[in-house]
Design brief:
306 residues; alpha+beta; 2 domains; three-stranded antiparallel beta sheet; 9 helices; 16% strand
Amino acid sequence: MVRISKVIVVILSAFCLISLGRAEEPTFEYSEEEAKLYRMPIKQITPKDGIWTGHVIAYGHYIKPPYKFEIRDDTLLFVNNVQIIPPLISTISLKRKEEMEEESHEAGKVAKQYNDRLDAILNMAREVYREITLRKDRNAAMDSICKLFKNDTLLKKIIIDVRVYPTSESDATMSIKLNLPGFGVTPFILQFYLYPPDTGKPIYKDKKEEIAARKASLQDDIGEFSNDLNKGKILLVSSFRGWPFTVEKLNKKTKDIIDILSSSKSAGEKRDILNSLKLIDPEKEILYNYESTEWPPSESLKFRDK
């Protein structure tokens, strides 16, 4: 059983389903030393044909259209020669992971009794899900699991909300919003999969079948990303946000970064303005990887008002 404290590290490092940033990031002073940690050199190419609508931003770089997806080695997905699945890992994201692991170790001492109880109840929840779904009553299983957590005397002190919802035909996802002592005052969310009863049969007959399944999954991703780009959406790929995903509009702070860096202001003026912004890691990824020859004018992109 994976310890809850280790699960938190994975989540905070953006390598899981939920990507959690730090609640507050301090203002910063631009330094070449910091820039080296965030820089992610890429070798994008511009194909002759592909998808001309939408936008792709990968590791702080703007990828020029048209967009063409390619599966390599049956397990890797590229767009315009840039690997997006699995996402590349930057030096700073590895450093963040190490910092989180150290913080989690110390915080885990404070939260040990809650960690132990969460482990125990989670194990119980998985067993309950298997048992009840054997009787083909998944709704009853999900209701029972919610009650397990909400009615526990100790966990009542830290849990804000518990939800269980279907993920696919037979499995489900449990989402727990909580405040865990030792991990700050900002609530965060843990997510766990609940699987159907084990039939005893292996998922794949052999390695060949497993790789074929992974390739099929990447083909599904291509279909989903292509559909979204055709609708004019923006595909975001980051070393900090886990799996690639699409959005309708970009964060306004991204527009501020692009406008400042592309302006005719002096280097000192740009630095002063940027230092007044509170930038989180994905935004710094754009700042430190910005190349004026890559990015179109910000007016051609879509941004949220706030």
